[in-house]
Design a protein that fits this description.
mainly alpha, 2 domains, about 75% helix, TPR_rpt
C-alpha cells in the first residue's frame, strides 16, 4: 500500500504477486489470497491492463465467496470492478451481468441507499446505455436519482449529475416520443 500511495503501481503489483504466490501455498489463508488477488486486479484495472485484471478479479471473487459467502460486500466490489473491466473491453452484456450481481450484493449487504450500491446501479445504467437498451438504462438511472434524493442536501452534486445523466439517456431513447 505504501507503493500505491507513491503512485508506484508496478512495484505494488509486483510485490502483491509475490505475496499471492506465498498465500497460494497456505489453504487456511484463502480469504487473504482473495483479498490480494482483488487488489492486484484493481491495480491492473487502474493502470489500464484490463485484460490482465480479469483473471485476478475472477479468482478473487471465487475465493472470497468461499470464505465469506456469496453476498459479502467485498464480493460485490469485485463484481463491480469486473463489470468495469468488461465495459472497458467493449463487452457491455458481460458488464451488465457483473454490475447486476454487484448491485444485488450491495443492496443486500450495504442497503440500496449506500453510495457504493448507488454506484453499482449507475454502472448498470451505463452498461445498458452501451448496449443501446435505453429503456433499461433509464430505469436504472431513475433508481440512481431516487437513491440520491434520499440522501438529502449532502448529496447535492451527486443528485445533479444523476439528473443530468438521466436527461441524456432520455434524449437517446427513440421510444420516448410516444410517452
Amino acid at each position: 500500500m505504501q507503493y500505491e500511495t507513491m503512485n508506484e503501481f508496478e512495484t505494488a503489483i509486483s510485490l502483491l504477486k509475490r505475496t499471492l504466490a506465498l498465500l497460494e501455498k497456505l489453504p487456511q489463508e484463502q480469504h487473504s489470497e482473495g483479498s490480494v488477488s482483488a487488489r492486484i486486479g484493481w491495480l491492473l484495472l487502474l493502470t489500464g491492463k484490463v485484460s490482465q485484471a480479469i483473471p485476478y478479479l475472477e479468482g478473487a471473487a471465487e475465493r472470497l465467496k468461499d470464505s465469506f459467502g456469496p453476498k459479502h460486500f467485498g464480493v460485490g466490489y469485485i463484481y463491480n470492478n469486473l463489470g468495469a473491466a468488461y465495459l472497458e473491453l467493449d463487452r457491455p452484456q458481460s458488464a451488465a451481468q457483473m454490475f447486476a450481481v454487484a448491485k444485488d450484493i450491495m443492496d443486500i449487504a450495504l442497503g440500496p441507499h449506500h453510495a457504493d450500491s448507488i454506484e453499482s446501479c449507475q454502472n448498470l445504467s451505463k452498461a445498458y446505455d452501451a448496449m443501446k437498451s435505453y429503456a433499461l438504462a433509464i430505469q436504472f438511472q431513475q433508481q440512481v436519482v431516487d437513491a440520491w434524493e434520499n440522501h438529502g442536501s449532502s448529496a447535492h452534486d451527486e443528485l445533479r449529475e444523476a439528473h443530468r445523466l438521466l436527461e441524456e439517456l432520455k434524449k437517446k431513447n427513440p421510444w420516448d416520443i410516444f410517452k
